Automatic annotation (TrEMBL):
InterPro entries with a match to the protein in the record: 4pyrrol_syn_uPrphyn_synt_sf (IPR036108), 4pyrrol_synth_uPrphyn_synth (IPR003754), UROS/Hem4 (IPR039793)
Superkingdom as given in the UniProt entry: Bacteria
Gene3D superfamilies for this protein: 3.40.50.10090
GO biological process assignments: uroporphyrinogen III biosynthetic process
Tetrapyrrole biosynthesis uroporphyrinogen III synthase domain: residues covered: 29-258
SUPFAM superfamilies, alphabetized: HemD-like
Name listed for the protein in its UniProt record: Uroporphyrinogen-III synthase
Span of the signal peptide: none
GO MF annotation: an example: uroporphyrinogen-III synthase activity
Length: 273
């Protein structure tokens, strides 16, 4: 069932009814911040993160973890699954002797929870930002480990290889669709009970369209605004024929909410304020 969170109807997003498509484990942050701004959230978790069925490639990389010059983390989940597997194999984090890079402050904060420090945190929290931050620190021939999701973009490893680095990619978790709440989500959209849908990754867009296809697809979104956490997610939305009405400038939950406040306070549907 989709859970609703009633906001206090006081604040810059008072009365806004937002569908949140993040995984169950990650939705709470966005929901609580939206509620604090006066909005109402309807959680429609579309993603589940699960360990890979075959972890042999990951395990082989972990067995020689000390041989890598860099380990680059591109998500909070990547950190969690990576360190979980290290613990399961009895490999201590003291074996992580290479430089660590994190795609953004939340990924870095997850590392810090385990006593690990990210030396590089880009200002743009995407692969391109990480490449820009790293380019002056990397040397051809250095060995890089990329613990990622199975559906991660290929931009980072491809560019690193072009720079002459020895890149090992390993799946540390798989992202799968969780569409059991799709009938109720479609009904809410059909009945005009949702003002905006928040997409926090390209996979949330793709899985949403897959989940809604049996119930009318894009036809359900008439009068519904689309909010994207960044330009890559917005590009995926457009590829599915959706209009990205709100695109965060800072690719975080906070940035997304700031963009929503600007949208409804400016050129958006101001009657919600």
């Amino acid at each position: 069932m989709i859970h609703s969170v009633e906001g206090g109807h006081v604040g810059p997003l008072a009365g806004i009814r937002m569908m949140v498509t993040r995984s169950r484990g990650q939705a709470r942050e966005l929901i609580s911040q939206l509620e604090a701004l006066g909005g109402e959230a309807y959680a429609f978790p579309l993603l589940k993160m699960v360990p890979p069925q075959d972890s042999s490639r990951l395990d082989e990389a972990l067995s020689r973890i000390g041989s890598f010059d860099w380990v680059m983390f591109t998500s909070v989940n990547g950190v969690r699954f990576f360190l979980d597997r290290m613990r399961q194999l009895g490999i201590g984090i003291d074996r992580l002797t290479g430089h660590l890079a994190a795609v953004g402050p939340k990924t870095a904060a997850e590392l810090a929870l385990h006593g690990l420090r990210a030396e590089v945190i880009p200002s743009d929290y995407v692969a391109e930002g990480m490449l820009a931050s790293l380019k002056d620190r990397l040397q051809p021939g250095e060995r890089v480990l990329l613990p990622r999701a199975d559906i991660a973009r290929k931009t980072l490893p491809e560019e690193l290889r072009r720079m002459g680095l020895d890149v090992t990619e390993v799946d540390v978790y798989h992202t799968v669709i969780d569409a059991k709440d799709a009938p109720e989500a479609a009904e809410r959209l059909r009945n005009g009970l949702i003002d905006v849908i928040a997409f926090t990754s390209s996979s949330t867009v793709s899985y949403f369209m897959e989940a809604m296809a049996p119930y009318g697809g894009k036809q359900l979104l008439e009068g519904v605004s689309i909010a994207c956490i960044g330009p890559i997610t917005a590009d995926t939305a457009r590829a599915h024929g959706l209009q990205a009405d709100v695109v965060a400038r800072e690719y975080t939950v906070e940035g997304l909410l700031e963009a929503l406040k600007a949208y409804w306070g400016g050129n958006g549907n101001g009657h919600f304020i």
